[in-house]
Amino acid sequence: MINLILFGPPGSGKGTQAKNLVRRYNLLHISTGDLFRYEMGNDTPLGKKAKSYIEKGQLVPDEVTIGMLKNKVDANPDVKGYIFDGFPRTVAQAEALDKLLKGKKLTITKLLSLDVGDEELVVRLLERGKTSGRADDNDESIIRNRIKVYKSETTPVFDFYDEQGKSVMVKGVGLIPTIARRLYKHIDKK
Ligand code: AMP
């Protein structure tokens, strides 16, 4: 089983590359951002709670996020592997994920981090905001807050898996298929 974490700041191309990886390795794609948007779209209690954080560019509290993620993994046991996109975003989430997988005799194979500069991220997200319908992509100050939160709360997750010898940094600029090939190279090495 291959269990990947697709890592990187907002706008680094995680969702785009996840699609390529799903096709090539036949994995289940779990994006916590997509799960929250689904809940918000259906106006569920979870969606209502998440919305207040998402619209400010803040992280949804760990206990809410971890519970939602666990439900999704538990509901899909018969898969060839998972690709986690936008999760874990804190060290507490990473610890919870490792524990969850361990209970299923599974482990993270690799964390692949897409490296893209801040100004490029802002340009990409504002561009995406024109068509994504996402309020958090439309406002530059919210975008900059998401990048700030990534640096303070999420980058320690890279170090967490680096200590396990699993983290790799991949250049996230260039053509989409070129970036995909960079990712494949690291996965196929294993
Ligand atoms: P994304 O689609 O991954 O950019 O996520 C959109 C928003 O959902 C983020 O800015 C957070 O507010 C929230 N979110 C998504 N994943 C997580 C997570 N793992 N932990 C906390 N908040 C999250």
Describe the structure.
This protein has helices spanning about 15-25, 30-40, 45-55, 60-75, 90-100, 120-130, 140-160, 175-190; strands at about 5, 30, 80-85, 110-115, 165-170. It has about 190 residues and is α/β, with parallel strands linked by helices. The chain has a single domain (about 1-115, about 155-190), classed as P-loop containing nucleotide triphosphate hydrolases (Rossmann fold), CATH 3.40.50. A five-stranded parallel sheet has the order 2-3-1-4-5, with helices on both faces. Helix 1 packs across helix 8 (about 175-190) and helix 4 (about 60-75) runs parallel beside helix 5 (about 90-100). About 30% of the residues are buried. The model has no long low-confidence stretch (mean pLDDT about 95). It binds adenosine monophosphate (AMP). Adenosine monophosphate binds near residues 33, 58, 65, 87 and 89.
